[in-house]
């Protein structure tokens, strides 16, 4: 590994000076179920960058700017608040990024802003010139796609008004739960989805003799400022994408299952979709390219140039091929990729622990009339006669960040 004298030292582990690279290294480390300080191939960081919509050459230049080559490895850096305040590991110092700047803008700091702060570096969304927050824009071009609670006088609320409405609703649900015992609100439903996805993952990995997992991460650009309209178009493109996935998987394996999560980026809450697939046998990358192509063809807001969706890069991650167990695992027998995807469900965190970007995304999902941001194949997680367990109300049983297990969480806090 190259010696990098210009990097910040935090708890004895080198932290990249480039905040974009820091964020990508943290995310790639979590995907591979690695602890702070463990060796992470730079190629995996570059792949993570591609999955987030960055150009491969740009990420390679950031890596080289820190003194590494794409053939080197770097230590997984401390997370700190580089993923935003919601995702900050509580015992990490607030200033363990380059300048200690909080990564998630607040309503006050962004209300009059048309471009992101230069401290944020290159933004996650694909269109770098857009007003990424668009707080004063209506949620949708057509009120028909909005939930009635997010329409006033026949017009959709603005994004900022939707955040305020969402916080009020979540607080109301908490009050109802305490006073009347009614707990089946939005958080309860998403925690149930989280538990269902985790159990599905554990069962399939145990059931398949030679499992392969595939994670598709499909993105759009902010072609319009209306958040629910973007989400509606993304959702509309999902079904033809799944049709292509069914065709390709049935050609290459006899048994396979999937779930999908419509998620928001951690900065600016731009919609994207993750599709997580389990297959009982090897699936070649060539079988995945038509799936990505179908998404781009079907989604009006996905760049036809394939920018942000390179099928040969981070848009498609295949693990466990050729009968080797290369699937990153959590300590409960599940896959790190499934947990990585499920932690992005909109309503899982406690509302008072959500930063503004998380609230912006969750309110977008809530304001969407369809509202179904978690979907799965027909796989029966709970067998006939089995009663689906209630989601545990305990905070500790559900993620408030993307640390992948209790053991890893404790190690991360060291």
What does this molecule look like?
The chain has 414 residues and is an alpha+beta fold. It folds into 2 domains: 8-87, no CATH class; 186-412, no CATH class. Helix content is 35%, strand content 12%. The protein has helices at 19-31, 42-51, 56-65, 107-110, 159-180, 186-207, 227-252, 289-298, 336-342, 356-367, 406-412; strands spanning 8-10, 13-15, 39-41, 73-75, 151-152, 155-156, 212-219, 256-264, 271-279, 316-319, 374-376. α2 (42-51) crosses α3 and α7 (227-252) packs antiparallel against α8.
In brief, what are we looking at here?
The chain is α+β, with helices and mostly antiparallel strands and 414 residues long.
Biggest sheet descriptor: 5 strands, antiparallel
Alpha carbon gyration radius: 21 Å
Question: How many strands?
Answer: 11
Alpha carbon gap, first and last residue: 24 Å
Kindly give the count of domains: 2
Helix content: 25-40%
Q: Indicate the low-confidence ranges by residue numbers.
A: 1-11, 83-124, 393-414
Q: What strand order characterises the main sheet?
A: 10-7-9-8-11
Shape: globular
Give helix and strand order, one letter per element, not per position.
EEHEHHEHEEHHEHEEHEHHEH
Individual helix count: 11
What fraction strand?
Answer: 5-15%
Give the rounded overall mean pLDDT.
Answer: 77
Class based on secondary structure composition and strand pairing: alpha+beta
